[in-house]
Amino acid sequence: MKAGSDFLSIHELTTEDVQxxxxxxxxxxxxxxxxxxxxxxxGKTLGMIFEKSSTRTRVSFETGMYQLGGQALFxxxxxxxxxxxxxxxxxxxxxxxxxxxIMIRTYGHEIVTELAKWADIPIINGLTDLLHPCQALTDVFxxxxxxxxxxKGLNMTFIGDGNNMAHSLMFACTKLGINFHWAGPKGYxxxxxxxxxxxxxxxxxxxxxxxxxDPMEAAKDADVxxxxxxxxxxxxxxxxxxxxxxxxxxxxxxxxxxxDKRVVxxxxxxxxxxxxxxxxxxxxxxxxxFDEAENRLHTQKAIMALCMGGVK
Length: 312
Hints:
Blueprint: H1 15-34, E1 45-50, H2 55-67, E2 71-76, H3 88-98, E3 101-105, H4 109-118, E4 123-127, H5 133-147, E5 155-159, H6 164-176, E6 179-183, H7 192-205, E7 209-212, H8 215-219, E8 224-227, H9 239-245, H10 253-256, E9 264-267, H11 279-284, H12 286-307
Helix pairs in contact: 1-5, 1-12, 2-12, 3-4, 5-6, 5-12, 6-7
């Protein structure tokens, strides 16, 4: 990745960009584990805009900047004039004079693209309702740790809502030649435009995309099964309806019985045990899931270092 680049969507990256991020993630994780200093962003400051709160996103980005030798500033709606009506383009131009990069976790994806349009510094998408690219790259890095560096030809199955996680995992898979299978109830399909973009990437890498409404068919021979909560942040009022609609779309022993015998299960957390995943499966796969959670730190450090000019 070129220094100064934005990180908004995995689709906008080349396969080489994705591989570069994953390789650097491994290097930075190894250095952190060995206690080796890796101050690639010494003296630099990241602004973190949170319109959606998050335990993992805040702690991982803030700790990551500290480990890279830089500083992170937490900015909520109460701290910004955006919450009082200032245009995003004005906020972008002002913050560009103070900071070296901005991470934003928000609702509408158009907010992130507008910020990137007007800012003179790198913008990192910490999450929108459309995409969650940091988590998706974290997941494929974790998959490398369990299945080896070359993931081409593996089968990833996502069970659940056609949400931001499903979108970004599909992009990550199609960049790396991983087959992507999705299964969810009718009415909860992924965005049609995202699907078309992923199909473009799949042509280049040989990935196969299957979009189904039968979870057992989607999970057949899966090397990794991913899931997420039925109702994401901002959808709490739909919880009761979604519980009913998603009946049968649960990661349980029956589902795992048709997957590869060495299947791993991933969850971006927080998990609602007994809903999208049963307790026994979650605990049996806890090492994978909490490695995945830890790897957010290292993956985001790699993204920040590459975007903010810490890698020569």
